[in-house]
Structure formats: C-alpha cells, structure tokens
Amino acid sequence: MKIFLALLLSAFSVCSTYANVNLPAIIGEHMVLQQNDTVTLWGWANPLEEITITPGWKAAPVKVTADHNATWRVQVPTPAAGGPYSLTFQGYNTIKFEDVLIGEVWLCSGQSNMEWTARAGIEGAEGAIREANYPEIRFFNVTKRTSAVPQLDLEGAWVVCTPQTMPDFSAVGYFFGRQLHKNLQRPVGLINSSWGGTPAEVWINPDALAQDPSLVAAARQLPKVPWGPEQPGLAYHAMIAPLIPYRLAGALWYQGEANTVVPEKYADLLPAMIRNWRTEWGQEFPFYYVQIAPYKYDRPLAGVLLRDAQRQAMATPRTGMVVISDIGNANDIHPRNKLDVGLRLAGWALNQTYGQAQVPYSGPLYRDMKVEGRKIRLYFDHAEKGLLAKGGALTHFEVAGEDRDFVPAQAKIDGNTVVVRASGVKKPVAVRFAWSNTAEPNLFNTDGLPASAFRTDHWEIDSK
User: Fold this and answer.
1) HEC string of 64-121?
2) pTM for this one?
3) Fold of 103-353
C-alpha cells in the first residue's frame, strides 16, 4: 500500500513538474477577439487535466477538461468592443495575458499583392509608416509553411500596430483595418496568411477540391515555380487549418494572377474555396476580394478571362469584389497604390457587414442587356444614381453579330444605362467591355467607382 501511494504521489508530482497547458500561436498576448460573439479558445494539456479560463470581462470562470488526446476546447462569450482585458488559463501551470482586446477580426489572404508591404514599396509609404501609431490595431503574420496534412499549429505572434511593425504587414490589410478602426471606433485584429505567386488551389482543402473533377484536372496544369507551392492544399494545411476555429468577422482575398494559367476554371474554383473555408470554420462570414489589375500577361486574354471569372464568382452569397482597373499598372503586376485597394475593401465591409448604407462600396456591375434594333442597351447594378465617363467619350466597348466577330463600338450613357452600337453590325447580339488584359476603361458610377470588365455572351474562348 505504501508503495502504491508513493507511486501515486510520484505521478502527481510528474504532472505538476511537467505541466503542459499550452495554447496555439493565434491565442496570445496582444490578440483581438471577435466582439459580441461566442469565441472558441483551445489548446493542449495533460489528459484529464482541468483548465480554468478566467476572462477579465466576465466574472464567472469557465472550466474545461482535457480529453484523452490531450486536447481541449471551450466557447466563451465576448462583450462589445473594448479592452484591454486580462485572460488567464490555469491548470497545473498558469498562462496569463494582460493585453487582450475585443473588436473586429479579419483574415487577409492571397498571393503577392496581399502580402505586399510598405517596406517592399508602396505609394505614400513614408507618410503611412510615420503615422501608423494605432495601439488598438493588432497584426498577426503567419509564417510561410507547407504541409501534406492539416497541422495543429503555426508560427506567428500578435503585435501592436506601430511605425516599427506596420512596414512588415500587408499594406492592403493595414489600410483596410485602419479605415475600419477609424470609422467604427473599435479595435481591429488582422491576420495575414498569404504567399506570393501561389495559385488558389494551394489554399483549399484537397478534399473539397476533389468534389469537382474539373478543378482537379485544372490543378494538374499548374506549373512548378521556384517561389512557392502549386500542389493543392499545401498552404491550406499549414497556414489556414491551424487558424480554425478562431472567430472571424470576415475574410479578405487578393489573388488570381497565378491562376491566369487556367482562367476559365476560376469562376468555380474561388466559390469552392469560399465554401470550404466557411464549412471548416462553421461560419458564413463575409468574403471580400480584389479583382486583379490590368497587366500585360503573355497569353492574350488570360487576364481578362480571370477578371470575368472573378465577377461571376460574386454569385456566391455574402461576397463582394473590388475593381481596380483605374489604379493598376499594366507594366507592373504589383501596383503600388495599396491605399485605395484597402479603402475599397473597407467600403464593402462598412456597407455590407456593418450596415453603413451611406458608404459607397461598388462600381457598376453588368446585370442584363436588351437589343433595340441596331443597338444594345446595357443595365447595371450599382448605377442607381447614374453613370459617368471619365475623360471624354466611353471607351473599350465591342459589339458582335451572329458571326461572333467583335468590332469596336460607340457607347453613350443614357441615365443609368449604356447604349452601344457599331456601324457595321446591323443585328447585334453580344457586347464585351474592357475585354483585354491591359484595358483601363473609363466607365464609372457617380460614386467614382469603376465598372468591371464583362461580356454578355457565353461563347467558348481559348485563352492560349
């Protein structure tokens, strides 16, 4: 009996000595938790170890017991935006954070234009860096990693926004978050998980991709490149899965240039990825993305086909697309005006997510057409207050008859519609707008936001 008691006491001593209550990297000092919500906290501990979680904003502690796999998970309600608060995790050991904010949490992901920082070079970098002193904006940069299977954790840490930390965070993400913070007067947490040159396939769970054989086939066409992975799921497993189920207000996405290899499948691929993320998170969060800018791709229509696929992807509920055809650079795949990209993304969030109806958020989006003799009348969403042509007559419209031969067309604004015609086309049947890789058209709505490229036909096009 004495030997048994000694062994038992020894076991408890080992548990105390090697206490292992620990947390994923995304849960740490300086973090932001989603406000007015129920957030999930999780981690690891000894099997059957009881962990007491004490939020500084809630008097009653929350208790949870680690399971036989040494994991635990618990949900905790959060109040309205505020802080800083303390947050304590106590088992055999104690972890305490003193600088936890409650606010709005957004995930920023994609390829190089999302990853692009002020340090890499943006318009107005010096002034933006100098004034980037926002204690209630927090950054979390996910370190680049790949994996063939879902990972439990990743590398990264929350930091406070200062002139020292801002230059190394996504510039688009920062300008978006700054606009939300100023407008909502709430803390904002931004998680950047992006990788330059990566196709969308690497950011989706391969099991979700496999549900569409055509997407699997398209993924086989992706070329191997020296700057990043191309195999489906490699970034998802290492850089997205470990963030789940950290509660989000929404997600931002700036990607597509790497998918101009097979642009015609992007209209299915992007919605598949959105559905996958929402399913994995168990959250129908808003998803706002940036249409790729004009650029001289080596295949004649690869860029505009990708842009049109992005336009079509807006059929997915609770999505929004920012058009940047007026602020790109056809000679540089990395346009340096990141401020307006961030502000336009913020417009979608402020209007559609936060209910600020007075905030403009979208340029004209093609809705329908009507043949009127030798003319075609085009109808648009987001044109209720009217349309305008910047710099003179409308440009970049083409019309085709049944021969499918598109020719340049004259276009005129008529209220909130556009009427197009071409002298050589007696019976027009289709219109294309801004239909080239480098098109920088001049159709805007009266809010000053540009129209997206579009086509009214569904004729097969060879992007090669």
Assistant:
1) EECCCCCEEEEEEECCCCEEEEEEEEECCCEEEEEEEEEEEEEEEEECHHHHCECCCC
2) 0.95
3) Rossmann fold (3.40.50)
